[in-house]
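QA checklist item 7 of 12: single-chain prediction sanity check.
[x] sequence parsed
[x] length recorded as 153
[x] structure emitted
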Amino acid sequence: MINTSTSLLGALPPEAREQLLETAGEVSFAAGQRIFNEGQRADRFWVLRTGSVTLDLHVPGRQAATVETLGSGDLLGWSWLFRPYLWHLGAQALSPVRALEFDATVVRQLCESDPATGRAVTHRVAEIIGHRLQAARTRLLDLYGPYGSGPRQ
């Protein structure tokens, strides 16, 4: 089942989806494999086909905090779309993963050459970022807040 709040391909118009898929390659990651680290250059992104990946945030003096777990259909990586093209979080395969990999430079060029595709991709990635920020906020409040992420009073 595809998570509609974090899916990129399923939310694009058919023409944009086909253009994007033409640039993709198949990759896999072993369980436990580090995919990228916070602060590294973001030069690609993935759409997960199978398996799961955790997104984590470096916490000084503590173990990295898991802020979200992604699965089938989810977009892995959005930092490739916005300067300075550095990862804002880290990612690690929780289980064996198969994914479609996209070269960020190629996709940015596609988005620039076809404004409709560019708008569709940028709009959907912005929605995914909003969802991820809310999920990270909730998770960090649960981990480190004095009263968790319960309702405000």
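[x] summary fact logged: Strands lie at 25-29, 34-36, 44-50, 53-57, 65-70, 75-76, 90-93, 97-103.
[ ] second reviewer sign-off
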